[in-house]
Amino acid sequence: MIRQATELDIPEILRIYDAARAFMCRSGNMMQWSGGYPSEEIVRSDILRHVSYVLENEAGHLHAVFALIPGDDPTYAHIEGAWHDDSPYATIHRAGSDGTERGAFRAILAFARAQYEHLRADTHADNIPMQHCLMQNGFAYCGIIYLKSGDPRHAYEWSSSL
């Protein structure tokens, strides 16, 4: 089940992000989400903006979290490459799992695609598992975007019209 996150979920969301960071490190992705990102402040902001969602199993155990943010993402305004679709979109950000349930990313995509016909996402060059998930689920690689910090990210896009 996917539902909007609440402030009561914050400790579990932070636990999930800790597990996701540990998985990234084990997978050779040492740089993405370093320094405690996403922070509790970011989690709270996502919840207050109603863009944070959690996945919970039948027993009520939270096992994944993500932000689904509609509208233009400022970091996507410039891309080294090209977007394939200029229609309005939503962006999947901060998707993380604690690894206890299979199929979390597929569930996130099904949820997002049920609401939006155009999705974008980005990830670190070292995040091979996420790149694989995106490509395996119909996203097209579009090029490199840069975060506010200047760090590069691989940018992907899915559209029902492509």
Supply the key terms.
alpha+beta; Aminopeptidase; 29% helix; globular; single chain; 162 residues; 4 helices
What is the CATH topology? Aminopeptidase
Q: Return the domain count.
A: 1
| Broad shape | globular
Major β-sheet profile: 8 strands, mixed
Looking at the overall shape, the CATH architecture is 3-Layer(aba) Sandwich
Structural class: alpha+beta
- Taking Cα atoms only, what radius of gyration do you get, to the nearest Å? 15 Å
The CATH homologous superfamily name equals Gcn5-related N-acetyltransferase (GNAT)
Helix content estimate: 25-40%
Sequence stretches where pLDDT stays below 50 over 5 or more residues: none
Q: What is the distance, rounded to the nearest whole angstrom, between the alpha carbons of the first and last residues?
A: 28 Å
What is the overall number of helices? 4
Give the DSSP E fraction (strand runs of 2 or more residues). Answer: 25-35%
Strand order of the largest sheet: 1-2-3-5-6-8-7-4
Q: How many distinct beta strands?
A: 8
Average pLDDT figure: 95
Q: Which CATH C-level class is it?
A: Alpha Beta
Strand-and-helix sequence, N→C?
Answer: EHHEEEEHEHEE
Layout: helices, strands, pairs:
Layout: E1 2-4, H1 10-26, H2 40-48, E2 52-56, E3 62-70, E4 80-81, E5 90-97, H3 104-115, E6 118-123, H4 128-136, E7 140-146, E8 152-159
Parallel strand pairs: 5-6
Antiparallel strand pairs: 1-2, 2-3, 3-5, 4-7, 6-8, 7-8
Structure described in brief:
The chain has 162 residues and is an alpha+beta fold. The chain is built from four helices and eight strands, in the order βααββββαβαββ.
